[in-house]
Design goal:
- The complex is a heterodimer.
- By secondary structure, chain A is mostly helical.
- Chain A contains 9 helices and no strands.
- In chain A, helix 1 packs antiparallel against helix 2, helix 6 crosses helix 9 and helix 8 packs across helix 9.
- The longest helix of chain A is centred in the last third of the chain and has 23 residues.
- The radius of gyration of chain A is 19 Å and the shape is globular.
- Chain A starts with 19 loop residues before the first helix and ends with a helix.
- The N terminus of chain A is likely disordered.
- Chain B is of the alpha+beta class.
- Chain B has 6 helices and 30 strands.
- The longest helix of chain B has 22 residues.
- The chains are: A mainly alpha, B alpha+beta.
- The interface between A and B is large, with 86 and 101 residues.
Chain lengths: ~180, ~475
């Protein structure tokens, strides 16, 4: 392709004919999905992998003509499932936090978003969140995105009753951890 | 009356689930008489609000390119490989001994790209025929941010736990690595086992004046005091090397106070300047050093004072241009800053900046997504919308080379998924260059052995392998 068709031409980035909706969804939601995953799996590389996997699944849906009615909710559900599945396989340890705090690599060290994350990593809230289990983090972070308990239960693959117990315990634990940090 | 524990469980439940009538009545009755429980409920709701206020985090640039690629290797696998590399490099560092300590006055010629001080043996900057140019695979096993200087090339990469690694090569073929950090015991109770070792520093940026190379970042010694007060244990630091092999490490920019990091660095007429936190001013500041080892804050950086959001910086002849979320800013001395209100559509969101260079393009280059804005005087701008998302740009002896990807979001459905490179000699017209089969982590630099591109490409077995390619005119 010739990039010099004439002055002032604002050629859009080319997007494949069957990838336009996924491309648009990526523009709209990738940052929040990535933020959700980083805080859930607590490893920036795993989170980035899962973002790619999540949007790849969306691209597959788009190609198959099954575009979700609610793309944002669909993305959170897929991302949650991937995060919990990955967490169960890898048993991501809390010690990975330090890797997250300190890792600097290509496309990472110079990102202002990552620097924001580094600052966040120093907060009591983040440290308290890290002490919860993966399912609990997913539940509280989904709730923070506005999802109700029933929806979170479906996403977690739990009964509503067990999700209710999980979330109430998690909120109380989070409060305890924050209180400890302030002592 | 229910006990406090039952009441708090109901209160926490009510944040996410509706209570039935009896539960609601019980809780309300308890809260009426229990000041502590009311306070606890308020705190739980406040925690929920804080979680909801956490910002989004843009994923790395490679993520979008990876969508739809079914054979994408796991980054975890790549990290494991990096861990092996850093282990080897740490051992090598022990074998060759500690970096020498003597100080010297660099008395260097400032150049943002290092081109000005290339030795005379470097091939001339004769015009390149873009249609005839090609890339030759000459090496492998290196990645990171790449600079070229008189002594060769340095790639700043990272290993396990973000350990900074400086890869050096004179010719792009053979690379040696130096770990810039020392492995120290982790803080008790931290990490997977609590007994592993971790690097005592990480790196964020690299720059050259053509004769020396400086890296900036932060140190976290994990000592007793630091482990007890993690909010005041991280300090900005720098490393400097005359030859790319041996590195001297600076003292922390400041001795005590809140955590801080150095995130950007450039060559100044009388030494070096860097962006780092300044706890005394409570702001992001510009720091100056004549030798790369001792640093002094010379004033606040333009823009917001509390967000370390420097996304790109370049300098030449004492003029510095920096990109922040709030826009582009320029300074003639690192102390006084002015906004660049108009930059051809690249005013905000710029991710890369190049300074004018000779040989090369005598113009400032600002990259914003797929857009490239160029200006000789930072007042009059030319804008080009490239048919690709730009991954890296570099000043070279042939002109500015921009490297990018043509497909976003389309994955394997994209009709033309290969990465692209373009060359400009005037900042306005761009000519297509050949491109090696490198998908990820690409970086370009000119140096003694020519223009190199490093990155990772397919290994033919469904995975990736890092490579080094040289541009052949």
């Amino acid at each position: 392709m010739d990039p010099n068709p004439g002055p002032g031409l604002q050629a859009p980035i080319r997007i494949g004919p069957a990838g336009a909706q996924t491309g648009s969804a990526f523009e709209q939601h990738s940052a929040e999905i990535h933020g959700f995953l980083v805080r859930t799996v607590r490893d920036i590389d795993v989170a980035a992998d899962l973002v790619a996997d999540t949007f790849t699944k969306m691209l597959i849906e788009e190609r198959a003509g099954r575009w979700p009615d609610h793309p944002r909710a669909w993305l959170y559900r897929v991302a949650s499932n991937l995060a919990m599945s990955r967490g169960r396989h890898l048993q991501v340890a809390t010690g990975v936090d330090r890797m997250l705090q300190r890792r600097g690599g290509d496309n990472v060290a110079d990102s202002p978003d990552i620097e924001v994350l580094r600052r966040e990593r120093r907060t009591d809230l983040d440290q308290a969140l890290a002490r919860l289990g993966a399912d609990a983090r997913v539940a509280l972070l989904l709730a923070a995105q506005g999802y109700d308990g029933a929806t979170i239960a479906i996403t977690l693959g739990r009964t509503e009753a067990s999700t209710r117990t999980l979330m109430s315990r998690s909120r109380l634990l989070l409060r305890d951890y924050l209180r400890e940090d302030h002592r | 009356m229910i006990d406090h524990g039952h009441a708090l469980t109901l209160a926490a439940t009510a944040v996410d689930f509706p209570l039935d009538a009896s539960e609601r009545a019980i809780l309300d009755a308890h809260l009426r008489d229990c000041t502590a429980c009311r306070a606890e409920l308020a705190a739980i709701r406040e925690d929920a609000a804080h979680l909801a206020a956490l910002p989004g985090i843009r994923p790395p640039g490679w993520v979008r390119k990876a969508i739809g690629r079914t054979h994408r290797p796991s980054r975890i696998v790549l990290l494991a490989a990096a861990a092996l590399l850093v282990t080897a490099s740490a051992a090598a560092a022990l074998l060759v001994g500690a970096p020498h300590r003597e100080a010297r006055n660099p008395n260097a010629t400032p150049s943002a790209t290092g081109l000005a001080s290339l030795p005379s043996s470097v091939p001339s900057s004769a015009p390149l025929d873009p249609s005839a140019a090609s890339w030759t695979s000459i090496g492998a096993g290196v990645g990171g941010k790449l600079v070229g200087f008189a002594g060769g090339y340095v790639a700043l990469g990272s290993g396990d736990f973000g350990a900074p690694i400086a890869w050096f090569s004179t010719d792009g073929r053979a690379w040696t690595s130096t770990s810039l950090a020392t492995q120290v015991s982790n803080c008790p109770g931290s990490g997977p086992s609590g007994t592993e070792t971790v690097p005592d520093a990480d790196a964020a940026a690299i720059a050259t004046n053509g004769r020396q190379v400086v890296v900036v970042g932060a140190e976290n010694p994990h000592d007793v005091a630091g482990c007890q007060d993690v909010a005041a244990s991280i300090r900005p630091i720098a490393w400097i090397s005359d030859d790319g092999r041996t590195w001297r490490r600076s003292a922390p920019f400041y001795a005590s106070g809140p955590n801080g990091r150095a995130t950007a660095v450039w060559a100044a007429p009388d030494g070096w300047e860097a962006v780092a936190d300044d706890p005394r001013a409570g702001t992001l500041a510009v720091w100056h050093s004549t030798d790369g080892l001792t640093w002094d804050s010379i004033g606040p950086l333009a823009g917001p004072t509390d967000v370390p959001d420097v996304s790109a910086v370049a300098a030449a002849g004492g003029t510095v241009v920096v990109s922040r979320t709030a826009g582009l800013f320029v300074s003639a001395d690192g102390r006084t800053w002015s906004p660049i209100d108009k930059a051809g559509g690249c005013e905000t969101g710029a991710t890369q900046i190049l300074a004018p260079a000779t040989p090369g393009l005598n113009a400032w280059v600002v990259v914003n997504g797929s857009r490239i804005c160029t200006s000789v005087n930072l007042t009059d701008w030319s804008t080009k919308e490239m048919p690709m998302s730009i991954v890296s740009v570099a000043q070279t002896r042939f002109g500015v080379i921009a490297d990018g990807d043509t497909c976003f979001g389309a994955g394997t459905n994209c009709a033309d998924p290969a990465p692209r490179a373009y060359l400009t000699v005037d900042g306005v017209s761009w000519s297509l260059l050949a491109h090696p089969t490198a998908w990820y982590g690409r970086a370009l630099a000119d140096g003694p052995a020519g223009v190199l591109l490093i990155g990772s490409g397919p290994d033919g077995k469904g995975g990736l392998v890092s490579g080094v390619w040289r541009l052949e005119p």
